[in-house]
Task: structure prediction
Amino acid sequence: MKHSLILITISTLLALAGCSTPQRPLPDYELATTWADMTLYITRYTPANTPTYASRGLGYVSLTMYESVVHGSPEYQSLAGQLNGLASLPQPDTTKTYNWPLALNAGQAAILKAVYNQTSDANKLKIDSLETTLRERLTNSDTDAEVVQRSVAFGRAVAARIFAWSRTDGGHRAYLKNFDKTLTFAERLGGWKPPLFAQSFSHHPLHPHWGKNRTFLKQNAQIAPPQPLPCDTLPTSAYYQDFRRVYEQEKTLTQAQKEAAIWWSDDPDETFTPPGHSYYIATRAIEKTKPTAIKCAETYARVGMAVADAFIDCWKWKYEFFTERPNTFVYEHIDQRWESFWPDPPFPAFPSGHAIQGAAAATVLTNLYGNVILVDSAHAGRPRDELRNTEFRPRRFSSFWQIAEETANSRFYGGIHTPQDNVAGLEKGKEIGVNINNLQWRMR
Result:
């Protein structure tokens, strides 16, 4: 299981800290991916986490990585002044020397503990231990102590400033209010209803206010909403037929489709969540291409902010349209004995969150790397799903967009999204990703 591999990698690094034998220099890409692995580990093993909150965390953690090293690459520039409400960030002293990998290392430890302040003390100790271990890997007896101190202080200052900015976005400590039990929603034809076959016991939808949060980019808050099909229970209507396709698909699911459905489920109680899966895909691209430190940081920043904004927009539209899922429509209008292959998540349907965040991530990764052949082993080794008679098998892809499309289709195979949910999600996710790509990452 990938989560176990992440833990093994981190544990190995910690064990090496006590070794007296010389160690090979730590490549920049390994430094970046090791912190990405730790980020996903904390995402997975922090209670009350959700896809919404995880996406937000990835946005701030990844931006901190970028801003902690950007001044070490003259062809790149800071995103301060380009992002929504982030006017300035700490600046290095141009007359002094910095060790930028040390700045990245310190910044990641600081922002991860700040964003996930609710994680366990044991997890915080893992973060501190990793920071110490990597700092020792990045220095030697000849390293100037003042450079070390200055670099660490800079990374922590960047993290502190970004965390202070994060506290004003509307999602700070949102894990304390996953479900707003004071809200009531008027019943209407086609409106979302708590399903009987569900992932959550709550009859209240998840994070109904998330769509009001500040996006990283103003442009992403201004994207025109997708338009769902008008509700119509007549069997000849496009709306009815959209749900009928879900109903018919469940009857003829192939083993490959079942495997896709469970692979991309990314239940937050069991995995590092859907946006975490996109972050994991970014790691696979980095490991395959071994880019420079700044491109690693740029990769994570683009993916992190793209999925964060995707979830804000998606949740805004989910609660604007408040649409039902197949488990309620099919039960009421097609077949009362039917239930989906995968249980419903506790929030409205349109558009698909899997589709929108998957498309946003694919759009930025394609812009950076083109089409790359990747093997996704995120859930390899997980116990067989006996209930659904399905194995977790690694998946091979020839492009990032193929990943996004399968991510979306997996929800159709699972019976929890209609085709229109996925089409809208893919279209809007691409718009979000294009806006991220259009930031001025490099000096003109």
Q: What stands out?
A: Residues 16-21 have pLDDT under 50 and may be disordered. Residues 2-166 form a domain with the Vanadium-containing Chloroperoxidase; domain 2 fold (CATH 1.10.606.20). The chain has two domains: 2-166, 186-437. The first helix runs from residue 2 to 16.
